[in-house]
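User: quick one - fold this with magnesium ion bound?
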Amino acid sequence: MVRGRISRLLVRDVRFPTSLGGHGSDAMHADPDYSAAYVVIETDAEDGLKGYGITFTLGKGTEVAWSREGRGAPGNSSHPKCSVGLVGQAGGKACLEVTRGHEEQMLAQGYPAYTTSCAWLGYSDDTLKQLCTQALKDGWTRFKVKVGADLQDDERRCQLIRDVIGPEKTLMMDANQRWDVPEAVEWMSKLAKFKPLWIEEPTSPDDILGHATISKALVPLGIGVATGEQCHNRVIFKQLLQAKALQFLQIDSCRLGSINENLSVLLMAKKFEIPVCPHAGGVGLCELVQHLIIFDYISVSASLKNRMCEYVDHLHEHFKYPVMIQQASYMPPKDAGYSTEMKEESVKKHQYPDGDVWKKLLAAQEN
Ligand SMILES: C[C@H](O)[C@@H](O)CC(=O)C(=O)O
Ligand SMILES: [Mg+2]
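Assistant: Sure. Structure tokens for the protein plus magnesium ion:
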């Protein structure tokens, strides 16, 4: 029920200097600064109702998002690594059939997650070893490693990870679109010995038939293809599913601009019996997508087989309702809304270029 009219729309350029630590780096994005065009929609409602939205970018992309959200109509951006998610905190109730037992199971055990935070491409071997060791101690059993820039490096890093996590734990690989189609097949036949469950974004996300070719070629190696974090509408997903181009479908709560678009993809995945394993590598993406995947389990797929949600261990402290991870699982959020609201203090500090964090960094760069 809408209790007021929109009275003001604010867009803030918020950037976190993650590139300083190599966090978030991959074969296509060497030095990302996890960032967002953060939108606050104010209303004249008596209770002060507000809506919050984020468009995830890697820094510069915020300027593109800004021009679309701040001055143009909100919508999907085609800029690399730039995702749109605009949602009112009041949120509607999207309701299919609710499976009570599954709801209780989620509340007790949470939704299974995997971690990407141990093996960004820019991390040293020592960091990689130390983070994998710690993650194992913390109960993680599923790990994703970035690959795709240099085969020898990939082999060394994958061996290091397998040495730490052992042969039984689940390992996924992510090439972030780096290869062309034959290269992807060749490269993965060299990495098959590390027993990856999937190769993610092996080639251009727009190349649906290319993904289908790769999928087919990797079947004998027991490796699936995962993709979706760059898919901006349900039609692309429909074609990927029809072409048998993916074995794991990765919705992105922001990229698919709106909950409705995400829901239609969840329903199609159910029809094609393809597991949904959401993308969450970015600022705020874990906060948002947890809602969708828990909804998927309770009301759509009713299955956890081959399913898990990505988790990255960065920047949650800047959110008013941060995700809660217990025993490598997402515990269902209990607050109303989509968990999108950021802390005002964090926004102020990280606003680009005039927040304290950036004033210092930019001054240091000048000297
Ligand atoms: C640039 C981002 O960190 C990207 O590497 C995230 C990603 O591909 C993932 O989490 O998957
Ligand atoms: Mg990825």
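One thing worth noting: The two ends are 54 Å apart (CA to CA).
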